[in-house]
Amino acid sequence: MSPTLTPEQRAAVERHVASAPLAELAGRFEAAGHELALVGGPVRDALLGRPGVDWDLTTSATPDEIERVVAGWADALWDVGREFGTIGLRKGDDQIEITTYRADTYDSTSRKPTVAFGDHIEGDLSRRDFAVNAMAVRLPSLEFVDPFGGLDDLAAQVLRTPVTAEQSFDDDPLRMMRAARFTSQLGFTAAPDVVEAMTAMAARIEIVSAERVREELSKLVLGRDPRAGLTLLVDTGLADHVLPELPALRLESDEHHRHKDVYEHSLTVLEQAIEQEDRLGGPDLVVRLAALLHDIGKPRTRRFQPGGTVTFHHHDVVGAKLARKRLKALRYSNDVVDQVSTLVELHLRFHGYGSGEWTDSAVRRYVRDAGDQLERLHILTRADCTTRNQRKAARLRRSYDHLEERIEVLSQAEELASIRPDLDGQQIMALLGVEPGPVVGEAYRFLLDLRMDRGPMSPDDAAAALRAWWAARA
Description:
Layout: H1 7-18, H2 22-31, E1 36-39, H3 41-48, E2 55-59, H4 63-70, E3 76-78, E4 86-91, E5 94-100, E6 102-106, E7 113-117, H5 121-126, E8 136-139, E9 144-145, H6 150-156, E10 158-159, H7 165-171, H8 174-186, E11 189-190, H9 192-201, H10 210-221, H11 226-236, H12 239-242, H13 262-274, H14 285-293, H15 298-301, E12 303-304, E13 310-311, H16 315-329, H17 334-346, H18 360-370, H19 374-383, H20 390-414, H21 425-432, H22 438-454, H23 459-473
Parallel strand pairs: 2-5, 10-11
Antiparallel strand pairs: 1-2, 1-8, 3-4, 4-5, 6-7, 8-9, 12-13
Helix pairs in contact: 1-3, 7-9, 8-10, 8-11, 13-14, 13-19, 14-17, 14-19, 16-17, 18-20, 18-22
């Protein structure tokens, strides 16, 4: 029997339902003789006081019957999820997904669930991932349905599965990733049996498509407490299968080879990057991934030196290649792959700045190499300072403040973000009397390097320098 909502909770649900055209929709289903209920995340979020974003509904109607009910009412309709029993629609500014009561299971070797439609809401809720997502509100009556104690779990901020954790994760292994994601997003704790099942069944995540894993990982990283979610992934061994570079950062140390805990350092850098995201206007997937992955080249480049010191030479370059490979395997977009790997490759560049020894040429190259990732590089570089030595930390902050001031001054004077040679390709060909070909590219790069070293030049000076380069090349 489902528990009774308090007046405050019922009012929250009513406000949630009223914020979308659900009552009108429910009337159409009721008139057609079908059950309809708000289910899962929207119910959970209403009870948590979170704003409504997704409108997930479940019904006794089949996909064909759903289409007949909403025909002429919905402003737009799509059925890409039909094979899973889902019909999507838009009404005004609201997007709604309606799914037939169902039961999803995985074949032991399949990446896709086998869908069987059900005939009652309790059976549908039993197939949900966690009890806090297995609550429903029947429409239009607003009867609360909670057969698995989700309301109690919500109060305790715990993640339990409606059925045994083993059965739930066997049905859909992605639910293990969702446990870590909700730990990050909601601040909930996975129940002991959930953690135990995740640990025992971690390898089963490999049957899930990279795209589905990527979506859960992104939501986890963008959550309010990604450290908690990532820690759960690593501690259960799930990260070994979806992001093995992360647990690899837990380098062994001993009395003779002391060095930073790179794993904990990386999580701290992630948190410190998040603290600066107001510079970007809010949560940013690229900067968070770059912060998390910036040191993944260290395990490959670790070398023990005489005297007990440890070096990680070129871990920035190696790390950029590893980040690119992993993000591609997770099917991230080319833009995300390029941006994150660029940041990883450049994250050490600032350490040559010292107390301001860079020439203007070096500052120009820093800006050019960062390109449109400069603001994110500022965030990553500042976040990468995790020393407990307050004097050293303050010195590093002052140095980077100084670098940013120099970039600003040069940018205003020279438009650093769009640095180009002082002669374009057409001018180069006319001056040298050559046709399009590799030599034009060589001349272009020569002039670009000259621009970096000397700053803006007049067309006459640039032409004279190019002629001298051409004569020396002959």
